[in-house]
Automatic annotation (TrEMBL):
Gene Ontology molecular functions: 5-amino-6-(5-phosphoribosylamino)uracil reductase activity; diaminohydroxyphosphoribosylaminopyrimidine deaminase activity; NADP binding
Pathway info: Cofactor biosynthesis; riboflavin biosynthesis; 5-amino-6-(D-ribitylamino)uracil from GTP: step 3/4
CMP/dCMP-type deaminase domain ranges (all copies): 7-116
Protein's organism: Selaginella moellendorffii
Transmembrane segments: none
Stored Gene3D superfamilies: Cytidine Deaminase, domain 2 (3.40.140.10), Dihydrofolate Reductase, subunit A (3.40.430.10), YbiA-like (1.10.357.40)
Keywords associated with the record: Multifunctional enzyme, NADP, Oxidoreductase
This protein's name: 5-amino-6-(5-phosphoribosylamino)uracil reductase
CDD domains attached to this UniProt entry: NADAR
Length: 563
């Protein structure tokens, strides 16, 4: 049934939030955004952001709507802010001729918050923000906008990834029999939902007990789509040498342990491609701090009671999803989802908020939040009404500038942004620097598989998918990598960066604005292009950007002298 005139905004914003959720599981979790263009009750264009570094939803929706966008209303569940310096969404809306824009949620990241709203208003386009009316007429629509970007809101507010504790238990609260046998507590339909939830996560965390007992794979059980990192937490590393998780041909594995634990075992894991991260004190909070630095938005805990209890006690679990199977197994020693929390009275129990119930096959899915979804502390109107300050005070004058994710400050410096490049003398266009770089690994190799890989990388929808194809083939078939790659990869990256920053004036200006600052690609796991976890990495990407910056400044000085 079509909504009444009063309900158009709410109706279309709910659709925008639903669309935005469609990107979950395609590429690594990222801010979820969608655009719906409507004339009264009729939708004339709609689209969502597929992944980091892909075409924004606004451009796609405008293209679908065509001339029908003139005089229409554009509904955005999230204020645009995919990458600093990228104003394509704003330009697309302006050129489309939309008469009005409705934003469900202002961007929670400070360096984006309010800027797009201010820019649109500065161009003469009226902008209404549902967040101002989140407790009234638009409560349901605003709530939907919150939920689809809950990970981003939690990350921005609490400076930790959004963490979900998931488990399946019998009706009498057991996650396994007293013998430890746990296959299967829940139904096939419930397990399929778990696979979908994994695809929405950056990482899946398990403890040593789960690994020893179940030997899990922790995959999404599907072809294509995002593959979350598998994380094993173990202080002693008392783990078997033969496990599914040590096979990293399809998904990456990180072992997090106490410093000095089983050095020989660590070295063996590294030779198999497993990443090992040592902590002075391995705790759930320390792990979440590391995941935050790594840029993770969502972390799924699939651990047993021995690890879930300290995670809950540390306050880093934000949501619980529990599958309750209509089975009774009994057993005094049978394990339960949560270990000892030290509570002696029911009044001490942790209460879930916004609880929902859903039947999944024969099971009941119960979910709820342990902490409310954060709301922005300041209304969007705080500075969105003044376009003159849209670019003021966003960035600090620190002598060191760190960058990593495209939606972070200075994220435009990463190779995973939606900036296509074309090299001088070439007619080929690459969707991103990462697409070009990965394809060049196999350039000139006279092998059908290598040539097919180049085409697959070229056609990959997102930079993440391009990187996955290139890295996997190089790992599995090193004989297909061009012989001079180690000596030429720096030149390949440099020519790609020159093409990128030469093609986009706003990126060039952003780079020049960092004059006098050290640029560091703060990847905690890349010790060649980035700084690594302990800061000892070579930071070659940052070095190339500083070299490029110096060349541009020198060129500008010569041009000034000639004038």
């Amino acid at each position: 049934m079509a909504p009444s005139n009063v309900g158009f905004d709410s109706f279309h914003m709910l659709r925008a939030a639903e669309l935005a959720d469609g990107s979950a599981g395609h590429t690594a979790p990222h801010p979820n955004s969608a655009c719906v263009i409507a004339r009264s009750e009729k939708v004339v264009g709609e689209a969502f952001l597929y992944g980091q570094g892909t075409r924004c939803a606004e451009i796609q929706a405008v293209e679908m709507a065509g001339e029908l966008s003139r005089g229409a209303t554009a509904y955005l569940n999230l204020e645009p802010g995919d990458c600093h310096g990228d104003d394509t969404a704003i330009k697309a809306l302006k050129q489309s001729g939309v008469a009005r824009v409705v934003v469900g949620l202002q961007h929670p990241l400070k360096h984006h918050s309010g800027k797009a709203i201010a820019a649109l208003r500065g161009l003469g386009i009226p902008v209404d923000v549902l967040e101002k009316h989140g407790d009234g007429t638009f409560k349901e629509a605003f709530r939907a906008c919150q939920e689809v970007n809950a990970p981003l809101l939690y990350r921005a507010t609490h400076e930790v990834p959004f963490s979900i504790l998931k488990y399946a238990m019998t009706l009498d609260g057991k996650i396994a029999a007293s013998t430890g046998h746990a296959s299967w507590v829940s139904s096939k339909m419930s397990r399929q939902r778990v696979f979908e939830t994994r695809g929405r996560s950056d990482a899946i965390i398990v403890g040593g007990n789960t690994v020893r007992r179940d030997n899990p794979r922790l995959t999404t059980r599907r072809e294509g789509g995002h593959l979350p990192v598998r994380v094993v937490m173990s202080r002693t590393l008392n783990l078997p040498l033969e496990l599914h998780l040590w096979d990293v041909s399809n998904a990456h594995t990180i072992v997090m342990t106490q410093r000095g634990a089983r050095r020989e075992f660590q070295r063996e894991l590294v030779t198999r491609g497993v990443e090992v991260v040592e902590f002075d004190f391995l705790t759930p909070k320390a792990v979440m701090d590391y995941c935050y630095e790594r840029g993770f938005l969502t972390v799924l805990w699939e651990c047993g009671g021995a690890l879930s209890a300290p995670a809950l006690a540390a306050g880093i679990i934000h949501k619980v999803i529990a599958f309750v199977a209509p089975k009774i197994i009994g057993g005094v020693t049978a394990p339960t989802p949560v270990g000892e929390l030290g509570m002696v009275e029911m009044t001490q129990a942790l209460n879930l908020l916004d609880v929902t119930f859903e039947q999944v096959g024969p099971d009941m899915l119960v979910s709820g939040y342990l902490k409310p979804i954060p709301r922005m502390k300041s209304p969007a109107s705080a500075y969105a009404d003044d376009p003159s300050i849209a670019d003021a005070g966003i960035f600090s004058s620190s002598t060191v500038i760190y960058f990593y994710k495209s939606w972070d400050p200075y994220g435009a410096f990463t190779n995973f942004t939606a900036h296509s490049i074309k090299l001088p003398g070439s007619s080929e266009t690459w969707k991103s620097v990462e697409h070009y770089y990965q394809a060049q690994k196999f350039s000139g190799v006279e092998d059908e598989l290598a040539m097919q890989a180049i085409e697959n990388i070229r056609n990959a929808e997102s930079p993440e998918e391009a990187a996955r194809i290139g890295r996997r083939l190089a790992r599995e078939r090193p004989d297909l990598v061009r012989p001079d790659w180690e000596n030429s990869k720096m030149d390949v990256m440099e020519e790609a960066l020159v093409a990128k920053f030469s093609s986009y004036p706003q990126l060039r200006s952003l780079l020049l604005s960092t004059a006098g600052c050290v640029l560091i690609e703060s990847s905690p796991h890349d010790y060649f292009w980035g700084s690594g976890k302990d800061g000892t990495g070579q930071n070659q990407l940052g070095r190339l950007l500083m070299k490029l910056r110096a060349a541009i400044l020198t060129e500008n000085q010569h041009q000034h002298i000639q004038k």
